[in-house]
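User: Is it possible to get a 3D structure for a protein together with its bound compound? The compound here is glutathione. I've pasted both below.
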Amino acid sequence: MADFELIIGNKKYSSWSMRPWIAMKVFDIPFVETLVRFDHADPENHNPHFKDVSPARKVPTLRQGGLKIWDSLAILEYLAEIYPDRRWWPGNRDARAHARSISNEMHSGFFALRDECPMNMARKVSAVKLSKDAKKDVARVEEIWRDCLSTSGGPFLFGKFTIADAMFAPVVNRFEKYEASDCKDAKKYMASIKSLDAWKDWERDGISEPWIVEIAEK
Ligand SMILES: N[C@@H](CCC(=O)N[C@@H](CS)C(=O)NCC(=O)O)C(=O)O
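Assistant: Yes, that's possible. Here is the predicted structure of the complex:
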């Protein structure tokens, strides 16, 4: 089955788009990519160009024929159903429950970290002063990663790459570009993510984009 279209935002900034994109590359799922640029001219009404993309007016969206699936985690769960032969989640049930817990924790939280350190593939590395809440987010991510890696032995959270790694991949950029973490285990995990061809391709494309979105430049 190869009739997928993944609609994404700017690779420089769109952390939610990166999640299914990177997983689809790692799991070798063929797809056509359509980039719809961010446009913040009318922030009240979302990006006018996203109107036809998804009912939520957000990216990413996966299209397959007449079917539209929006939201990063819904896309990943759908792909896991379509390609059950790939190891999208850990094989062990307890580990799978753990992977789903942390993926959903990422999906529904870490607002301070996201707000204060927006993903930006082209940002010059330099530290910013983080709020108390953002520091708590950083500490919690470090704890999640340490916990998973000490059990699995790495190099990814559950040994091999899974959806959980895709969900945390944008944090690797945030930690790096804003010098947000000094944790040795985190740095080791970040190096594993950054060694993926899929990461390198996304990063290269993001860096070469000419468009600047002011509100994401911090
Ligand atoms: N929960 C959604 C979040 C999607 C989201 O917020 N996407 C951002 C881009 S990274 C977006 O489309 N923002 C446009 C807007 O809010 O106008 C997901 O997991 O896909």
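The chain has two domains: 4-86+204-216, 93-201. The domain at 4-86+204-216 is CATH 3.40.30.10 (Glutaredoxin).
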